[in-house]
Design a protein that fits this description.
Elements: H1 2-31, H2 41-47, H3 51-59, E1 68-76, E2 86-92, E3 97-102, E4 108-112, H4 113-119
Amino acid sequence: MNENRRWRSAGTMMSAAMLFVLLGAAAEGAAQVAPTPSLNSYSDEMQHMQPADQAAKLATHLGLACIGTRPFFMGMTKTGKAKGYAYWSVTCAGENSYMIQISPDGKGAAVDCRMLKAQGEGRECYKSF
């Protein structure tokens, strides 16, 4: 009888050990789930840059001579027709400020911040949304 109890105890321990192995494998598999695809990898990449590099990259979207300063990520559209469009603000040294819309493929369009404030129905540069 004592021998029988020992076998049952060993069987329980083996079952528990197998359960821990299976749970560990499941947890390991969960950790390897593919990340959610980015809505705008171009903007995501910019968010990991130093501010001076962000400003320089944003200035390239303006189509005019600009030494970009003071970059600011305003936000990203998550739904609708403009899903994945990122919005940044940047100021040119000694000049005007601009809001830049960056599409998921990295193309940009800029609007002068004064014009945006006057005609943007409450939208302004350098404000998160």
